[in-house]
Design a protein that fits this description.
Layout lengths: L13 E5 L7 E7 L2 E10 L13 E8 L11 H4 L4 H15 L4 H4 L3 E10 L4 H22 L12 E9 L2 E4 L3 H4 L4 E8 L4 E8 L6 H26 L1
Parallel strand pairs: 4-5
Antiparallel strand pairs: 1-2, 2-3, 3-5, 6-7, 6-8, 8-9
């Protein structure tokens, strides 16, 4: 029995609210169970120096957690004067995941920055950030296309992510914090909406895992991402 009472292959409830903030070109509040993340997209008429003049666009991301996103207060990283290693690793994951679903030639030489701020954390914050980040990106690109700044749609596919793991000896989909903190194996799966893989992060957290178990987790992730992609498409319809 999972702590939440969910079936092994059952996602937490997912809601995606668009237009959550006033000023950003794309904004989304995504809720995956008790994990809530605000994702905003900003269009900028510049690109990093290493691709300037190439005609290619760029998508990048920043990630952060509010001090009381968790059950105890965390110090703001700005007050410490630098980002932690976990933060840097997550925002790089978000950026490269979203870029995998973008035709950077069609985007043109501009940058879209995705900011992901965790308001409340209960496991799977990086996955929710990627999933909500794509919706914010979709909304921003829609504005570019409506204005005629982009001719062909640069978003080739939805991008979504979900966690899976081995909890109490069973493969489970979409770990919440009680499961994540006790899981013997933990994995994050990033995919295009059609099931093609972008990135898989899996590690033993106290128990090794077999090839068969990995295949079971892959199947669960495929199911979860298909559900998330449907929710993404519904949110921007």
């Amino acid at each position: 029995m999972r702590p939440s009472g969910r079936d092994l292959s059952e996602m937490r409830p997912v809601s995606i609210e668009t237009g959550f903030t006033k000023h950003a070109e794309g904004s989304v509040l995504i809720k995956v169970g008790d994990t809530h993340v605000l994702c905003t997209a900003t269009i900028e008429d510049r690109v990093p120096p290493f691709i300037k003049g190439s005609g290619l666009g760029w998508v990048t991301a920043e990630y952060g957690m509010l001090p009381r996103a968790t059950n105890t207060r965390m110090r703001r990283e700005a007050s410490a004067g630098k980002q932690g290693g976990r933060t840097v690793e997550i925002q790089r994951l978000i950026g490269r995941s979203l870029r995998a679903g973008v035709d950077r030639v069609a985007l043109g030489e501009r940058q879209i920055s995705i900011d992901c701020d965790v308001l409340q954390a209960d496991g799977g914050t990086r996955c929710a950030s990627i999933t909500g980040g794509w919706v914010a990106l979709r909304l921003a690109v829609n504005k570019l296309m409506k204005a005629g700044d982009v001719i062909s749609d640069p978003l080739v596919s939805p991008v979504a992510a979900v966690s899976c793991g081995i909890y109490a000896g069973q493969p489970v989909l979409d770990l919440d914090y009680p499961e994540d903190s006790e899981a013997g194996v933990d994995g994050n799966f990033v995919m295009l909406g059609d099931g093609r893989l972008i990135e898989v992060q899996m590690s033993a957290e106290g128990a090794t895992f077999s090839r068969d178990q990995m295949d079971q987790l892959m199947s669960l992730a495929d199911k979860g991402v298909k559900e998330l992609a449907a929710a993404q498409q519904a949110a921007v319809a």
